């Protein structure tokens, strides 16, 4: 999982879901798990 400032480019990938857990924003991508990230 990458830690990134901006998740905008990852949000637009096919299969991406934006999830908020405990105040932290995550991007989960089941189609392509390389694009999993957490916002710093």
UniProtKB/TrEMBL annotation:
Keywords: Ribonucleoprotein, Ribosomal protein. This is Large ribosomal subunit protein bL36. One of its GO terms (cellular component) is ribonucleoprotein complex. The gene is rpmJ1. GO terms for molecular function: structural constituent of ribosome. InterPro entries: Ribosomal_bL36, Ribosomal_bL36_sp, Ribosomal_L36_bact. Belongs to the bacterial ribosomal protein bL36 family. Pfam families: Ribosomal_L36 (PF00444). One of its GO terms (biological process) is translation. It comes from Streptomyces collinus (strain DSM 40733 / Tue 365).
